[in-house]
Specification:
Number of helices: 13
Shape: elongated
Largest sheet: 8 strands, antiparallel
Oligomer: single chain
Structural class: alpha+beta
Radius of gyration: 26 Å
């Protein structure tokens, strides 16, 4: 009776053969060793930026926070003041105040060059700096382009794809060989140091991967934008996003209309708060007014009004709620990436996700060194 029971027992289920598991292990190991430092850098800088606006307001309230004092001055007057103060620079974009206490941010020359802050109630200059000269601005450039422009962006995009691979292979390796799922969630705190290190890597890796899969995929999508949007449009059978107008007729000798007049026109065709204004960088370029609807989770909104800078004629409107489905899907990537969906709790989770690669690299490196010595 005992013999029959012994021979009739079924072996525990296995997720894959041993050879395949060893291959996945090596792939996971060497990908982690190759890209670990890059992913740690990206994660730590990302964590620092989750609460960037709040930290900047605390560090520099003199240029970011004002006391409301009635009506705002004309935006044309603000630009005139900035042009006089910085005659060698060209206004590029304007961040509009989103609260009565917030100031104007005028970006000069490009999205990442000189930042000028202006009091919206009296038009007084409050301060200026180049982005790379502020701590959080420098961290932002490090996080988005490794301080190396397009080359840095590409490297980070590849790093995001490698992180996706690490998450997938890590989840495969996380599955307990004996099929007892509970073991994958257990940290033996009283175990010897090497066993404790292994448990920490496995358990924290499982939970972190759920967040890192999202962070890595959205981050890589920003870098490889055309490929990502094309893939999403194909999967969702959606029409592509309408291309923004690039060149418009520029009547000779006709001055551009007042900026405040153009913004009023944008408000008439799309009544919603304006978040950003992209200023024309050539005589043929349109003025682009960006707006946020109450239903949107994107902090800046994904509604764009394109206007002829000379006539004020509306050339094109992009409405976030009526955009093709694939475009609406892609529009969720940024708020998901920064934890804007769900408020403070999800932002805290994003901070934790950014710290996770450091823990996983350290515990993984300890496991690798111990394995080389034959201790695992």
């Amino acid at each position: 009776m005992t013999t029959q029971a012994t021979h009739g027992a079924s072996p525990p289920p296995r997720i894959m053969p041993g050879a395949a598991r060893r291959f996945v292990f090596k792939l996971h190991l060497y990908t982690g060793l190759l890209a670990g430092l890059l992913l740690v850098l990206s994660g730590l800088t990302g964590s620092a930026l989750v609460f960037r606006e709040e930290l900047e307001a605390l560090a520099h309230p003199e240029r970011l926070v004002v006391a409301p004092q009635g009506e705002r001055v004309a935006l044309d007057r603000v630009l005139q003041t900035v042009r006089r103060a910085y005659p060698g620079d060209r206004p590029f974009a304007i961040r509009m105040p989103r609260t009565p206490q917030e100031t104007y941010l005028i970006k000069l020359n490009s999205a990442h060059d000189r930042f000028v802050y202006v009091d919206p109630y009296n038009g007084r200059l409050l301060g200026a700096h180049r982005q790379k000269q502020s701590v959080l601005g420098w961290i932002a450039l490090l996080h988005t382009e490794l301080l190396a422009g397009e080359t840095g962006k590409t490297v980070l995009g590849i790093g995001g794809l490698l992180l996706l691979g690490l998450c997938v292979t890590g989840l495969v390796l996380w599955w307990p060989r004996n099929g007892k799922i509970s073991q994958g969630f257990t940290v033996r705190w009283s175990a010897r140091r090497k066993r404790l290190n292994f448990d920490l890597h496995r358990v924290s890796g499982f939970y972190a991967s759920l967040l890192l899969l999202l962070t890595a995929s959205t981050g890589a999508a920003f870098v490889f934008n055309k490929t990502a949007t094309g893939f999403i449009d194909t999967v969702t059978a959606s029409a592509p996003r309408a291309a923004p107008p690039r060149a418009l007729p520029s009547p000779k000798g006709t001055p551009a209309r007042a900026l405040d007049s153009l913004l009023q026109q944008a408000d008439r065709v799309l009544p919603a708060p304006t978040t950003w204004v992209s200023l024309p960088q050539s005589p043929q370029a349109p003025l682009v007014v960006r707006k946020k609807l109450p239903q949107e989770t994107h902090p800046n909104g994904r509604n764009f009004v394109y206007l002829n800078q000379y006539t004020g004629k509306v050339v094109q409107i992009e409405h976030a709620l009526s955009a093709p489905f694939g475009t609406r899907v892609f529009n969720t990537f940024y708020p998901l990436h920064i934890g804007a969906i769900g408020g403070t709790p999800t932002r805290i989770l994003q901070v934790v996700a950014g710290l996770a690669p450091t823990l996983l690299l350290v515990t993984g490196f300890v496991m690798w060194k111990s394995r080389k010595k034959g201790n695992y």
